[in-house]
Design a protein that fits this description.
Distance between the termini: 54 Å
Largest sheet: 7 strands, mixed
Structural class: alpha+beta
Length: 941
Amino acid sequence: MTPTAFWRPHTRKGARRVGTYSFLVNGVRRTTDENKSLLRFLRDDLRLTSVKDGCSEGACGTCTVVVDGIATKGCVITTKLADGREVMTPEGLDPAEQEAFVYAFGAVGAVQCGFCIPGMVMSGAALIRRNPSPSEDDVKAAIKGNVCRCTGYKKIIEGILLAAAVLRGERQIDPGLERGDDYGVGTGAFRVDVRRKVLGFGVYPDDITSEDYPDLAYAAAVRTKYPRARVLSIDSSKAEALPGVLGVLRAKDVPVNQVGHIVQDWDVLIAEGDLTRCMGDAICLVVAEDEATLAKARRLVKVTYEELEPVRSIDEAKAAGAPLIHDSFLAFGNVVRLHDNVCQSRHVKRGDAKAALAASAHVVTGSFETPFTEHAFLEPECAVAFPYKDGVRILSTDQGAYDTRKEVAHMLGWDDEPERVVVQTMLVGGGFGGKEDVSVQHLAALAALRFGRTVKCKLTRGESIAFHPKRHAMRGTFTLGCDEDGLLTGLDCEINFDTGAYASLCGPVLERACTHSVGPYTYQNTDIRGYGYYTNNPPAGAFRGFGVCQSEFALECLMDELADKVGISPWEMRFRNAVEPGDVLPNGQVADRSTALKETLLAVRDAYDANEGHCGLACAMKNAGTGVGLPDKGRCEIRVEGGRAVVYSATSDIGQGCNTVFLQDVAEASGLPKSHILNGECSTEAAPDSGTTSGSRQTVVTGEAVRGAAFLLRDAMLAVERGEDAPAAPVRALGDGLVVTLEGGEPYRGAMGDSLRTGSPVRPDDPVGALSRLEGCSFHYEYFEVTDKLGADKPNPKSHICYGFATHLVVLDKDRRVSEVYAAHDAGKVVNPIAIQGQIEGGVLMSMGYALTEDFPLKDCVPTARFGTLGLLRATQIPDIHAIYVEKDELLPVAYGGKGIGEIATIPTAPAIRNAYRRVDGVAQSRLPLANTPYERKRRR
């Protein structure tokens, strides 16, 4: 059958009675009397949860279905408009099409978080049915209405083109790729979650329905009308009297009415008499039997306010007599009293920057401003909770199950017994730092315990935009100096962050902005002061890059200006100062043997020379792991269950692919095929705590824990092959990257040394057979490598386990548009070559949006943007991205030498773009997004 033969034209036959709408869905006649969005009919009535709800505003494309052969957003067409038509969802694709898309998207690495993917597939399928041999431009045009925040679109485009080639019979599906016959470290691994994400049957929290939990109820908050106001009264009597309403919860119903990731300053619900602090604040929580009743009940709640003047900016927060956003907060069990609006501050100093700058041959100073940025992950926040054992179980989409457990337990007054809260991480539709704080998890848990029901709580896209923490807006002044040869001498800077209404992760983000503001270069005189200010704007917290996008933008702009003063090229300026193995970084840490910044510069040298005069350059470094003296531990337990090695580690795969990396680590160590390795349940009940998905830490920190557990398993497999007995008790060990000891302190005596490297011959002769003799055994490993706290009194403190390095080169065409980006990365050992390309491309495009199109306009602290007006780049706007990765022969001794890629990929592109425009236009812009470019649109600030 040819691809074009799949479609059958529809004809309307017979009359229907007025008010009844009838149409085909996946070949089956469906009828409804209700005129509502097709998206809601497909999800709520037919349970076709492959059709995702990303915005319900017609902007994101996650709900794309095919209607009469045309890719159509399900949220903008109603059942009335669908009357007499043929509708197709991923479930209705021909099996040949399904297999083509699964193979193609997996083979090229088109799948990350997966939330946009079913919609992309349907746009691609409609195109291929209409045009079996599409061009790349055809594909870009076909998916223009579909947003992807993870991949940068390039891999999705490649996937659709490959699927078309398969359906034409020009390419064959290789079943061994998905089967994972060769799945070790360094091989192009087919991700473990491709099939369920491509076909849409993977479960995100919003895909849970009353078929899963028959007692399912729904909760949503009534939120403030004003960013700063006193709540005078709350009248919920009419809402509570509405049939189907279970109740309305207020602040008095919350055992401990504050949460917070590190600092507890965030009211769960705003009480009568108290002040609101931003537009996301919840006043009360309505719980109802169904969503229609819930929506009606929320409208019936009447809140009376005394509107107050908000604190709009850093300047207003600093002003004498400014109202305090908070007068105190709780941190690590201690109440901290506040006398101004400074939420957090940091001072990072080494050497004598003042003297070094005074003695410098050349000095440049600049003031820079960067905006708030919305994460725009495709999956809005959602959680389902129900009473469980002596507490509550939460099915969540977040970046750290144990972090969520801690926050919810605190709210419930269970700090001493947090195990009563069980958090299970479902599929996560993107995060980028925006799902580190609790958003709906605690509300769902509160309602579930109060009413003894299963409760779903989710945010609309508008609520999400108003509520969850953004990338911090920055204002900073930087002074950088060098000698007559261009060697850097010193840096002085002050960084000011707007952290909005709540602390979130202000402290760690500010700290990382300060410690990385020095860049990946060799000089020893720095004085960096950082301040985070409370305002009434939406809160700011973690965002991919974790503060470094802001400070590195400023530094890399000044690097170009210094190069001009010295009279050398920007490339030469960076190469002369680039850190090498054994050099001392500005923070005092000695660069380890894997450091390959100069190699990334060399990787883009030819492209730089070929485009000098209309290109821009920037370098970056980014830590892996939390570091700075904190107890950042990786933990993994491998249990042999049903003849398979099941990997348990409570880590969130938010699209970066860590679950696949972990299985590759086990396959590499043990010789087992993918068919005999699985990811276990990611929950606080079933898996050990291995920390937050943040700081590019999972590949390194949890990866080393997985590798350690895999070697314990491997040695047990070798032992049973020698005729020894299987372990009678769980095997537990811990290590710091160099020394491994058993739990009781006894040195580990298994195979070590060269056997820890990739390609090791130390493996069982019959891995599957050996594994079968270990049924019921478990192997637990904890990895903890000590780092030094900020400001440690040491000549060469170790701030982080390791750093990744990168150089990005941006080329402008004759129309002043970004035509090419060369993104060269030192990520250590590339564990999965398929996955790293998409990570780099996605980071580049996110950074390009930061530089050129994205903004988060506020009017008196009220967000005015919708999802469709955030300035997110579309598939038709992407440049040609060249993802380049360099590997040194000498790598780190942990995690097979991998260093992670998630954050650093999004740091250097923005300053490289600014530097490219400076070369072309001669204007040294200092504010993002850049003005006077072909990408500029009418922006509301």
